[in-house]
Amino acid sequence: MRVVSVADRPDLAGELWTFADGWPPFMLEDPVGSLLGPISQRYARLQLLLLDDSARCVGKAHAAGFDWDGREESLPARGWDEVLLRAVGTVTPTAVSALEISVRPELRGQGLSGVLLRALREAVAEMGLTDLFAPVRPSQKASAPLVPMEEYVHQVRADGLPVDPWLRVHVRAGGRIVRVCPLSMTITGSLPEWRSWTGLPFDISGEVVVPGALVPVTVSVPRDLGIYVEPNVWVRHHLP
């Protein structure tokens, strides 16, 4: 396995989009997510590909530079959405945020996401920057959608590491959990749209638990509206 950037191998840029990222279908309806393609072109050195010995892409990392004032308290509550918006307007980035790290489904659980994360840390250091952030989507939070994120992130194992596997990868790599970003993604749709995305009836107003969602979807039948506001977790990798 080896990691290359799209800047070094522009001929492989299309590989960034060759396999599903594993997100549930409704997650692809975040309108801000349409910026990921243009931003990936702009920050080619921060788009990484994990290649196997046959040069097939088996994993990928998206990241972007953004303007940060050096204060952790200024990290945006909007998390993933806000980083994408800031990346568009940033001329000289002062920090980098990971946007997605994913591995082909059949190869997950083998530590390859950690390989990509370490490579991304190195890429940021090579840019002369000292901070890599990530609005992390905890990989097992969807199994506990009614547990507040603030409570979930503090669940640890006997060894003191996070219970959540993806948060654990970040901490093992040197990351530190800063706080929850409560409004990281917002997805709004009509009830027919939510039915098509999830296969659920959406015929009762209130909080609806949806497979793959980290928190319930808020539903209003009279308004024909469903709103999903996803919290993520700010993790900071301060690099030497």
Layout of helices and strands:
Blueprint: E1 2-5, H1 36-42, E2 48-51, E3 57-66, H2 79-89, E4 95-103, H3 112-126, E5 131-136, H4 149-152, H5 165-172, E6 176-189, H6 191-198, E7 206-208, E8 217-220, E9 225-238
Parallel strand pairs: 4-5
Antiparallel strand pairs: 1-2, 2-3, 3-4, 5-9, 6-9, 7-8, 8-9
In summary, what is this structure?
Helix content is 22%, strand content 28%. It is built from 6 helices and 9 strands, in the order βαββαβαβααβαβββ. The mean pLDDT is 96.
Detailed description of the structure:
This protein is of the alpha+beta class. The chain folds into 2 domains: 2-184 and 232-238, Gcn5-related N-acetyltransferase (GNAT) (Aminopeptidase), CATH 3.40.630; 187-227, no CATH class. 22% of the residues lie in helices and 28% in strands. The chain is built from 6 helices and 9 strands. The chain has helices at residues 36-42, 79-89, 112-126, 149-152, 165-172, 191-198, and strands spanning 2-5, 48-51, 57-66, 95-103, 131-136, 176-189, 206-208, 217-220, 225-238. Strands 1, 2, 3, 4, 5, 6, 7, 8 and 9 form a 9-stranded mixed sheet that branches. Strand 2 and strand 3 form a beta hairpin. It is globular and about 55 Å long. It starts with a strand and ends with a strand. The model has no long low-confidence stretch (mean pLDDT 96).
